[in-house]
Predict the 3D structure of the following.
Amino acid sequence: MIALSNGQYIIGFDNGYQFGKTAQTLFDNGVYAMGKVEPSVKEHSLKYERKFYKVGEGRAVITEDKVSDENGRLLTMTAIAKELSLKGITKADIILAVGLPFSDYGREKKRVLTYYEQKLVLKFEFEGIRYDVNISRIFVFPQCYSAVAPRLGNMKGDYLIVDIGSKTTDVVYLENGIPMERKSVTIEKAMVKWLRQIQGSLQVQYGKNIPESEILKVLLKQEHFLPRSYANLIRENIREQIRTLELELKEREYALDYMNVIYVGGGAAAVKNFSEHRPNVLYDCDIHANAKGYEYLAYQIMKKQGVV
């Protein structure tokens, strides 16, 4: 969250298909409607328009987009509340900055703006605290590009930015900090699909349905209590998934062997942990990178316009 001199706040929200991410917070993207039944505990509870929800417990089902129902708004309210709560703020005028996959940006930007413009005044309760929020301006930026936006001025020459998300992998080709759209793509290979394939392998091999959360612990090299044989199978599977992704990138004529490559976002950690390290490849494992980039880009635009 960026506080402006005029009393407004810029809040970036990266609404992923597995996690909701702001510049400083992270939460599961599951939304469970409870109707008029008040939750037993306040944690993860949201009250909006006289209805109760649990937001942030488990992962939601992957859908075609994030603006076809009210869930996107509920997740956005949760993100706003989490950022404001860090400063003890309950009433605010904010500039909302969100994103879209790089290849969807031009086609879907207007639709996302229309979605948020439908309800600019949000009055809700999150975890028992009342929030009064006015969205005075909305920015939509392309994912992946946003993740490296703060460092573009130092990126001379050609760079390939690879953002492995939950549903898609965005690949952005930069020449001296400028994205080349004809060389940039979105690939339908990403973490959720990889996790499902690993779950399938574990089911076939051991007859066990292992939760995604436990598989992620292995991929992120966190403490886990899975049997060694399970963990080894997970490692073998993720190495194969990464090899398959890089093979597709090479088939698209990206020179991974010698050009500058930066893996960004949550998926970067898996690649860093389970692929061969090369001197031309860097890993930015900050899962908040896109949300931070949205805030940075919104601030730069407003600065140029003399608003801040």
